Structure formats: C-alpha cells, structure tokens
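Sample A.
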Amino acid sequence: MSEKFTVDKILIASIILLLSGLPLLGFSQYVMRIVILMGIYTILALGLNILVGYTGLVSLGHAGFFAIGAYGTAYFMIQHSISFLVALIIGTILSGVMGLILGLPTIRLSGTYLSIVTLGFAMIVQVVIMNWDSVTNGTLGMSQIPKPSIFGYVLNLANHGIYYLMLFILGLVTLGCYTIINSKIGRTLRAIKSDELATTMMGIHIDRYKILAFVLSASITGLAGGFYATLSSYIDHNSFGFDLSILILCMVILGGMGTIRGMYLGAALLIIFPEIARPLMSWRFVVYGFVLIIMMHFRPQGILGWRSRKQYPIPSELKNPYRMVEVEE
C-alpha cells in the first residue's frame, strides 16, 4: 500500500511540475486556451462523476448548472461590479441551491425517469436564459465579461495568469473530490450505488446523501461555469445546450466512472479530438456515440475504470477459504 502511495505521489508531483512549466515552452495563446478548456471540462467531469460515478444517479441536465454558474458570475461582475472571486462564489452557491431544489423532488427517481427530469431541468434553464432579458440579456447573451483580477492585476492569456488560476481551481476541486470520496460520505455514496436496499437496512438515510451528492455535483459544475464565463468574455444560451450535457457524460464514461484520474483522461481526449479532426466537426457526436457503444460493449468501466473495481485489498488468507489448515494436537 505504501509503495502504491509513493508511486501516486511521484506521478502527481511530475504532472504538477509539467503543467506549471507549460507556459514556459512558448505555446501560442490558442494552444493555451485549449489547455485551459481541458481544465474546465475536467472540473465539469469531476462534478458529474460524484453523481454518476459514485452515487449511480445519471444526470442529463448538468449544462443547466453550468449555465447558472456562468450567468450568476457574469451578472454580478457586470451589473454590480463585484470582484471575480466573490462573484464566482455567488455563482457556485446559486448552482448548489438549484442542485438542492432539483434533488429534493427527484430523490425517489432513478434510471430513465431521473434522466428525463434532469434533461427537463436543463431545458427550463435554457428557456429562462432566453427570456429573462433584465438579467441574462436574452438571446443576445452577455458580452464584455471582465477578466479575473487579483489585487488589481488582470489575469489573461497573454500573461498566463488565467492559466495558473485554472490550475489552482482544478487542484482545489481535485483535492476536494479526493477528500470527499475517501471519507464517510464517499463510502456511503458508493454503497448507495452498489445496493440501495442494503444501505437502507444498515440504518443510513440514503435520501440525505443523494441530495448531498446533487448539491456537491451542482456546486462544482457551477464553479466551472463561472470560470468559463470570464475566460470566454461572452456567453449566450447556445453555449449551454443538450450537447454539452452529453459531452460531459461522455467524458465520465470514457475516462472511467468512479475514478478521479479517468476524468482527466476523458476531458483531454474529448477536447483534443475536435481540434485534430476539424473535418469531422459536424460528425463529432456521431463519433462520440460510436465510441461509447464500443466502450459499453468491450469495456463498460471506462479506460481507467478498472481501478474502481478493487476498492479494498483482499487479505491473502481470504483468497483461498477452502485451504486446509493443520491443527496441532
């Protein structure tokens, strides 16, 4: 166990060192923007993974939480001249509250019924965005969203400040997810996914933990939305359609549900693919669907999902329960 932990620490330290020095390699702003988008979508995948990968609740409406975080952050920065950090926190809280509101009436639902309800939620959010002109500016969208600034220092692509801010937020979210999953909450969520009835028989109020999973997942998604708004400087309802929810779900399934490493891999693959295969842009969701069909048939646990199949090591004395034991007389 200690050897595996040491290898993990070396791997994480190597990745952090590589990412920290990436701007020094002289990449263009276009490449750095793609890398930042990979980080944002990794945060989105980490948020959805709490709900799908660990709790077993499928959501097709995370684009709605993403939109609430983005519009909430942009609105308070533009209309009330609030600093980026405070506006981001407000947008995150708003998404978490909407996760609570959505989670309360859906705790008894699962499978197809839950997917339909969450899909309806995302469509409602999109309609509200298109018609609430006083807040969202309707179909025209919100433009000239200020870049984040710290102590008067504006963070943008030119000075790589927004890249390092993305790394910081991604690191916090990853650490938070790791802490949650390896706590009592995470063990309970995995138990709910494995067998709700058995979890209930153990005296656990699964409804509370399902709602908590919704709130945590929505908050992380809203956090990514707020950061995305400042990166893009312009958002409208087309940025938060049904295809975005499907894309996030594809990242979770492809990388490996129930793993943190898998979210990094899934986001990287599905963000890089459109850039290197631009002639297939109009067919990208056909390709995504084909890949998912192949994955669900040959490797349903995802590329790195094998790590989640063996949560705890099996003691050697239990591997062969029928072993003859000599008894001294």
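Sample B, a different protein:
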Amino acid sequence: MAKCEQCIIKQFNSLKSLTKSELMRISSCKTSKIIKKGTVIFEEGDVLNGVYCVKDGICKLSKLSENGKDQIVKMVVKGQLLGQRSLISDASSNLQATALNDMEVCFIPKTEIIADLQKNPKFSFDVLKEMANDLKEADDVIVNMAQKSVRQRLAETLMYIHDSFGVNPDGTLSVLLSREDYASIVGTATESAIRVLSQFKKEGLISTIGKFIKIEDFNGLKRVE
C-alpha cells in the first residue's frame, strides 16, 4: 500500500498542504479500496466519517429529484477528494456517489484528519478554497440550466469530458457515459439527449464507435446554439 507522503496524487488536492509527519500519520490509518464500476460509494443521507482520495477512476455525484430522476451535479476524478465537506460539517450527505468505472480510492477517517484541519492553517485554507470552487461550479450549472439550450449544454459537456479526461487511442472520449448519464448532466429527458446526439452526428460534429463518442468538429461544437 502506497504511503501518503510518497504518493503523487496528493499534489492535486489539499493534502499537499500537510506536513510530512502529518501525512505519515494519516498513511498509517488510511484504508485502500478497489471500487467496481456501478458501485454506490455513499448515498444521500449517509453520514460520512472521512474523505476519499481518488487514486484512479471517476465517480459521479448525483441527486435524486422528487420525481425520481437522477441529476448529475459533478464528476470527481483522479487526484480529487470526495466527501471533504464532512470535514467541516456533521450534516449527512446531500448527494450520492457512484463509480463510473473501476476506481482505486484511499479512505481517511475524519477523526485522524480533523486535528490537522484545526492545527494547520494552510491545509484549512486549501480545503475551504476547494469547497469555494465547488460552489462556483454549482453556480455555473444553475446559470447554464437557465440560460442555455439543451444543445449548448450537451455540446459543452462533450467538450468538458474531452478536455478533462482525454481520449482513447482511436480518438473516442475516454469516459464512457450512458445516454441517461448525459441527460442527467444537462438536465433533460433521455429521449432529448439521444435526439440531440443524433443531430450532432448528422451535422458531422461527432461520430460514434460502438457506445463511444468521438468529437469530429470541436470548433463546430463551440458554435452550437
């Protein structure tokens, strides 16, 4: 099991602000887990007793609406922390986390890291900075839902996945999402997402290889209205 003080992943989140001795202590109490694709990591209403450091893989954070529809709020990727709000608040989770592919995570108990939050101001500041960024992203989602069309939101989602997660050797997006997932991200019905993706394909903006999507005209997606 990799040691936290030697793990390169810590450079991508607030754990980079911990001292070597703090990281060594955390390393001795963390647990590493392999999470299979489709597994629910935690559900809405769960009380999180720590944070997950994502070493590999991607998960979605989603919220179930009153009509039973899933709304994807965010995707958490390699290098990010999952559940860090539990360090600040004792409130139960308002989101569900589900693995989109096979993941490797390290779970750090809240009891071990809370003292560092109180004693290490740089670590505290970085945690708050990441949470502030989450709030900004949430604000952007709200504005996009209100002001942009489904076509624009779906085009931006495809470009975001391309820029954030890269492509496979054949040029297809490396993250395989279901059409239901795309609908959940942009806040529309699955049928609408399927229809818009079909339009993009007819317009030469994208192509498909099996279930995978390949962007053919990046600039064209930017111009979608």
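Observation for Sample B: The chain has a mean pLDDT of 87.
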